[in-house]
């Protein structure tokens, strides 16, 4: 009887341990999942480069009625004939620029470019933009948004304005998304509330500490790469100057691991912002506008520029915009290995809010620069 009892007891303990193990997995798996995703391997599913770079993009084709810029976003035919969007035959890189040769009369606007991908890119993706030059002295951006903004959110990978020195990375969402406990190298956070309805739609912005991530120093350093991960575990942005690009990226590999990149410059974990709730498939966008609600705000403009944005820069012969261009080697889209997150479409995004024109934006920008310079 004693032996039978011990055998039964041993069997019962094994069963109990097995139940405990399964329970522990169910409890801790969500905690482990972000770490697992952090080392995710991605495979390339789309590439924009070389002579076909502009295939698969839509040109906005109307004046800037989105951010009240003093700009006309031209059609593809005008962009081609005016050489505002073309592939340089010497470098085989895409140029996206502001018209810097036409004399603009008072009350007119200046031609420039806004393009968006026809395909949307879903959660479980990375996009990498390799750029040798970015516009400055204007309001440029490389970013993404869902077609029904603010539903579906917005991810600003590269953006700032005028003669600022640092790139700013920002999310804009419906109310309820916050940046909570980020794992990032930047210590300059302008706001943790991503809601478009808070802080005049300033979003939850993070300033890059590298002063060659924007402007003249970016160009002098031969540019670099911006990398955005759009994952269930969170959204992250990395920036690498030309000389510090990880080997798996610089070699244009068709596959790479996020573990190769180290800690991102900016990070918005899903703990404060449920990615599947606040974000939907995104269209990638390049645009350059002039003045507008943010860059043309008098207080913001005066931080880095003299005079009046429209009167002293837009009007006239255009030579103010000799540095207002993107020089892009490639944009590559990756999906989690074994998947394809591209959503085929022909979307021509027509909306981005124009609610930047507040002193709040100026105060945020000023505060960020003070912190960066201190």
Automatic annotation (TrEMBL):
Question: What Pfam family is a match for this entry?
Answer: GH16_XgeA
Gene3D superfamilies, per the entry: 2.60.120.200
Query: What biological-process terms (Gene Ontology) are attached?
Result: glucan catabolic process
**InterPro entries in the cross-refs:** ConA-like_dom_sf, Glycosyl_Hydrlase_16
- What is the top-level taxon of the source organism? Eukaryota
Q: What is this protein called?
A: GH16 domain-containing protein
Native source species: Favolaschia claudopus
Q: What is the lineage of its organism?
A: Eukaryota, Fungi, Dikarya, Basidiomycota, Agaricomycotina
């Amino acid at each position: 009887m004693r032996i039978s009892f011990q055998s039964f007891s041993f069997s019962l303990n094994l069963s109990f341990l097995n139940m405990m193990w399964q329970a522990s997995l169910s409890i801790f798996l969500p905690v482990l999942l972000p770490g697992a995703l952090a080392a995710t391997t991605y495979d390339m599913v789309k590439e924009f480069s070389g002579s076909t770079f502009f295939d698969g993009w839509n040109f906005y084709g109307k004046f800037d009625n989105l951010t009240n810029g003093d700009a006309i976003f031209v059609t593809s035919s005008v962009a081609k004939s005016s050489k505002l969007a073309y592939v340089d035959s010497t470098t085989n890189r895409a140029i996206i620029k502001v018209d810097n040769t036409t004399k603009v009369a008072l009350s007119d606007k200046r031609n420039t470019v806004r393009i968006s991908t026809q395909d949307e890119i879903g959660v479980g993706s990375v996009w990498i933009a390799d750029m040798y030059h970015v516009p400055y002295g204007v309001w440029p951006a490389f970013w993404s948004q869902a077609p029904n903004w603010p539903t579906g959110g917005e991810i600003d990978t590269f953006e700032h304005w005028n003669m600022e020195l640092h790139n700013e990375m920002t999310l804009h969402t419906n109310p309820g998304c916050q940046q909570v406990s980020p794992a990032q190298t930047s210590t300059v956070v302008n706001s943790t509330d991503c809601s478009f309805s808070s802080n005049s739609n300033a979003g939850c912005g993070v300033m890059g500490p590298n002063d060659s991530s924007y402007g003249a120093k970016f160009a002098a350093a031969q540019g670099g790469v911006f990398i955005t991960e759009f994952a269930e575990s969170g959204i992250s942005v990395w920036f690498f100057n030309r000389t510090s690009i990880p080997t798996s990226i610089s070699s244009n590999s068709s596959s790479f691991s996020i573990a190769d990149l180290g800690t991102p410059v900016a990070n918005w974990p899903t703990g404060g912002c449920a990615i599947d709730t606040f974000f939907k498939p995104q269209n990638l966008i390049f645009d350059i506008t002039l003045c507008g609600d943010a860059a043309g705000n008098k207080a913001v403009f005066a931080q880095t520029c003299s005079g009046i944005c429209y009167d002293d820069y837009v009007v006239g012969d255009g030579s103010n915009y000799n540095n207002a261009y993107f020089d892009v080697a490639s944009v590559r889209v990756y999906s989690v290995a074994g998947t394809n997150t591209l959503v085929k479409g022909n979307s021509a995004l027509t909306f981005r809010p124009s609610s930047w024109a507040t002193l709040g934006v100026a105060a945020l920008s000023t505060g960020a620069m003070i912190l960066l310079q201190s």
